[in-house]
Design a protein that fits this description.
The structure is a single chain. This protein is mainly alpha-helical and 144 residues long. It is built from three helices and no strands. The N and C termini lie far apart (57 Å).
């Protein structure tokens, strides 16, 4: 029995399978990149639509009298909050398969969780130092 030939055969089979897996991974990465570009275009369009809707809402609300700003003590600043846009509501397509609906629901749940995490991830400095670099080190969590 020739062990060297058997080892060489096993190694060549492993290399062949590795090459097939790498090709599959490269194809998945290519498709992911294409889908990410499509989604970024879609998100940009939706954000533009939301901006236009907000502009229309603000122009309608200008006829109402504005409330006077609340008075604050000297030297105090309001807490700094980042504006996180509300997640868009996904409307399922009736032609989707049950698996696609389930995946869409999971993606929507992940997006809601991420938005909630981002909304609570900004910590305001308490020592009066309000520069953005120090805010980075004062985060409540390092997981973001």
């Amino acid at each position: 029995m020739d062990y060297a030939a058997e080892i060489e055969q096993i190694a060549s089979e492993a290399r062949r399978r590795s090459a097939l897996l790498m090709d599959e991974i490269n194809e998945i990465n290519r498709q992911t990149t294409i889908r990410a570009e499509e989604l970024s275009i879609e998100v940009g369009n939706r954000l533009r639509e939301l901006g236009e809707q907000d502009g229309e809402d603000e122009s309608e609300g200008e006829s109402e009298p504005a409330a006077p700003p609340p008075t604050r003590e000297e030297g105090t600043r309001p807490p700094v909050r980042q504006q996180v846009p509300p997640p868009t509501v996904m409307k399922p397509d009736p032609s989707w398969a049950p698996e696609q609906l389930q995946q869409a629901e999971i993606r929507a749940a992940v997006a809601r969780a991420r938005a909630a995490r981002q909304a609570q991830s900004t910590v305001t400095p308490s020592d009066g130092d309000f520069d953005s670099e120090s805010e980075y080190y004062r985060r409540s969590t390092w997981l973001d």
